[in-house]
Structures are given as C-alpha cells and as structure tokens.
Specification:
By secondary structure, this protein is mainly alpha-helical. The protein has helices spanning 16-20, 32-42, 99-106, 136-180, 186-203, and strands at residues 25-27, 54-56, 65-66, 73-74. It is built from five helices and four strands, in the order αβαβββααα. It has a two-stranded antiparallel ribbon with strand order 1-2. β3 (65-66) and β4 (73-74) form a beta hairpin.
C-alpha cells in the first residue's frame, strides 16, 4: 500500500513517478512540540499523526532541506508552510490594532457633515489576498524546487547518453577485435552490428 502525503488536497504518494519528479517524503517529527507545529500547519480537524504519517517535500521551502548528502533531509526545526488551502481554511489577516494605527485613524480630517473622512482620503477596503492559493514566496519556492528537478533530470539524461555512447564504442571495438581474430564471419558480424545499432538507437 503506497504512502500518501497527509496535507489537505495533496495527492502525492510515494512511487516511481514522484521519485522521478524529485519529490521526497518525510515522517512527522518524534518531538511532541514539533509534531504539534506540523499538525497546526495542516489545519485538518481531527487529524492524528502516527508513525507512518508523511508530508511530501512540496509543502516545504527550498531552504528547509539539507541536500549535502546522498539522502535529502529536512533541517532541524523545519515546519511546512506551502499549502493550497480552500477559502474556508484560509486565515484572513487580522486588522491592525496597534496604538500607532489607531492614532493614524484618529488624525484623519473629518467631514463635518457626515462625521466621516472625506471620500478622497478614505482607505479602500483591502483585497482578500488570503484567498490566493499561495504567497509569492511560496510560489518562488515551488518554482525553485521545479527547476532543481529539471536540472536533476537533465543531468540524469546526460549521464545516460554518455553510458550509451561508451557501450556503443565498446561494442564496436569488441566486434573489430573478434573479426580481426577470425572468430566471427561476415554474416555474424553484420547481424551483431545491426543489433548494436538497434539497441543504442532505442536507448536514445
């Protein structure tokens, strides 16, 4: 049974496809305080994390990872911050209630007839920015992760092509050596060369 990401609306599961996309999966922390931080970040009522609960790497920023070793690890203290919550789970920004903001409102000139600030200096109601799928920082983190995956796949393709070229060169040298020692006839040589070309072409 595959391991699924526990984030709201995320369909990523541990598989060959997600591995090829560079997606990694990380278990919930054993530390109770950090585990509570992860659960709060998920915003899933009634969710209880167990020893098999996972979050995929798409919910962490690029700075949260340690990629210096062979295994991609989360840095100590990393907390998931990238989610695509529906509107009812978005957290609206609370209005400012500091002393400075209240004084700024009190110092606005008032319209004596309506006891309200003149229309030309009324502040427009803020857009509901919390309804957007994610912040620019989160989008940039996802873009960085996607670009890293592209670079990784390009390196893997380059390495695979290099291996194919070496195999083709070795096959050709071997055929020439066998032919020089009269260990194969012309007909067998042609068949082996044909197989070699077909195999390397298929690999490309």
């Amino acid at each position: 049974m595959p391991d699924f990401c526990a984030a709201y609306g995320c369909t990523n599961a541990r598989s060959l496809q997600t591995r090829m996309r560079g997606i990694t999966f990380h278990k919930f922390p054993k530390c109770s305080e950090r585990r509570r931080q992860w659960k709060r970040a998920l915003r899933r009522d009634g969710f209880v994390a167990n020893n098999r609960s996972l979050l995929c790497s798409e919910h962490f920023s690029n700075e949260d990872f340690d990629r210096t070793g062979q295994t991609v690890r989360l840095k100590a203290g990393a907390v998931p911050t990238i989610f695509n919550f529906p509107v009812h789970l978005q957290r609206p920004v609370a209005p400012r209630s500091t002393t400075a903001s209240r004084r700024a409102g009190e110092n606005l000139p008032m319209d004596p007839q309506q006891d309200q600030p003149p229309p030309d200096i009324k502040r427009k109601a803020p857009d509901h920015q919390y309804a957007f799928p994610s912040s620019p920082k989160a989008l940039k983190a996802k873009l960085d992760a996607a670009m890293a995956t592209v670079r990784k796949l390009q390196r893997e393709k380059s390495n695979a092509l290099a291996r194919v070229r070496r195999a083709k060169k070795n096959m050709k040298a071997l055929l020439e050596e066998l032919k020089a020692k009269n260990l194969i006839n012309e007909e067998l040589n042609d068949k082996l060369e044909c197989c070699s070309v077909f195999t390397t072409s298929f690999c490309y």
